[in-house]
Amino acid sequence: MKLHGYFRSSASYRVRIALGLKGLKAEQAFYHLRKGEQRSDNFLKLNPQGLVPALETDDGNVLTQSMAMLEWLEETHPNPPMLPKDPIARAKVRAFAYVIACEIHPVQNLLVLNNVRALGHGDAEVNEWARRTNYEGLAACEALLAHEKGPFCFGATPTLADICLIPQMGNARRFGADVSGFKRLLEAEAACKNVKAFADAAPEKQPDAE
Amino acid sequence: MKLHGYFRSSASYRVRIALGLKGLKAEQAFYHLRKGEQRSDNFLKLNPQGLVPALETDDGNVLTQSMAMLEWLEETHPNPPMLPKDPIARAKVRAFAYVIACEIHPVQNLLVLNNVRALGHGDAEVNEWARRTNYEGLAACEALLAHEKGPFCFGATPTLADICLIPQMGNARRFGADVSGFKRLLEAEAACKNVKAFADAAPEKQPDAE
Q: Taking CB atoms and an 8 Å cut-off, how many pairs form between chains A and B?
């Protein structure tokens, strides 16, 4: 397998964590998003949408969309599981993951922030947009864990919820969101820090980190 | 089951389609989003995030996030399937669905458009934001189907891809996006129109439609 990504891309980070949790080794290729390398001819041949990550499988398929890659990894490499067995519990883990993947992340990514900028807004307003999106979204995530046992988001082992949470916590801090009140999220983050797959996937550990 | 939604909410619309495809009957409750009824005490008890849809299951659980509901429905009511069997094919269907659920829909929903408005922009700029988001996102969706057989997005039967596509096509037109060049999306839409579950789930057929 070969993962095409970028050290700071949250979606690439999710897939790096999941590959590690599954004990899978993947070659990596890196594209500098701010320099527009994801729009190079070579990458557009793999993913015409020009978005990282893209995952080349061993049989030559190219998968796009990090959440689809995570589900594919879970289906093809079920152990250790990233989702509980009970359908209601799975739905709760996925709902948490989707608050991040469908509500927070898309509204504060580079493309959207550039759109805000294109409407005539400067750094302060753009950053406030991203800060608030992260803060309010993570507040919703914290509420979803009110009755869930730790130390991870949903119990004793990491799930899709933690895989989506950890990259988003990094974004939230980068945009100045005050996460200090999110006790359960911080507990889950602390638990993940002790898991090698999470530690190895951190942006600052990647060869393209700046 | 009881689906708490709003006739025009795309995410509620997705779940209405899926319930119909699975042959399930669910009671419905409606909340007028523009009047803020999703922030009423009654609804916040169900979903503290104050977002529709919410799905009350027969055993009293409350599910949130439409994409989590769709996966739950697929897991608990596998027939007829909304995803193919082959893992790579499933990943491709999900990737298409996530382009809509994680890239288009969140960037043009009411909350984000209100944020654009709060930055001092009027109807024309807000509408152009939403139009462009729909147009560019659906162009990516059309490209994903270049090598997929019809008449539905991915073959002879509707999948999660169609379930996400149909509501989004409605939004795209409402914001003035020109979808006439998206031949495969239009083909899939035409095929869905002949499926009762899609027809019955249409916003204009709901009791709260205006």
A: 109
User: Is the Cα dihedral A105, B188, B199, B86 positive or negative?
Assistant: negative
In a domain? residue A206: no
Same domain, A32 and A109: no
CATH code of the domain containing A24: 3.40.30.10
Do B72 and B16 share a domain, yes or no? yes
Residues A100 and A76 in one domain: no
Q: In terms of domains, do A125 and A41 share one?
A: no
B20 and B73 in a single domain? The answer is yes
Q: Do A68 and B143 touch (CB under 8 A)?
A: no
**Per-residue pLDDT tens listing for chain B (210 residues):** 999 999 999 999 999 999 999 999 999 999 998 888 998 998 998 898 889 999 999 999 999 999 999 999 999 999 999 999 999 999 999 999 999 999 999 999 999 999 999 999 999 999 999 999 999 999 999 999 999 999 999 999 999 999 999 999 999 999 999 999 999 999 999 999 999 999 999 999 999 998
Q: How far is A144 from chain B (nearest CA, A)?
A: 9
B interface with A, Cβ–Cβ below 8 Å: 48-49, 57, 59, 61, 63-65, 67-69, 71-72, 75-76, 87-88, 90-92, 94-95, 98-99, 101-103, 105-107, 112, 115-116, 119, 121, 125, 129, 140, 143-144
- DSSP secondary structure letter of residue A152: B
Cα(A144)–Cα(A73) distance, rounded to whole angstroms? 25
Count CA atoms closer than 13 A to B169's CA, side-chain side: 24
Domain count, chain A: 2
- B114: closest CA among A174, A132, A124? A132
Domain boundary among B15, B49, B78: B78
**How far, in Å, CA of A145 to CA of B142, rounded?**
38
Residue B15 lies in a domain: yes
pTM confidence score: 0.97
Task: At A129, give phi and psi (nearest 5°).
Answer: -55, -50
The residue type of A134 is N
B210 to chain A, closest Cα gap in Å: 27
Contact assignment for B140 to A57 by CB distance below 8 Å? no
| Pick among A71, A83, A121, A142 to test the B interface (most B CBs inside 10 A) | A71
Domain match, B53 and B117 both:
no
Domain that holds residue B150: 87-198
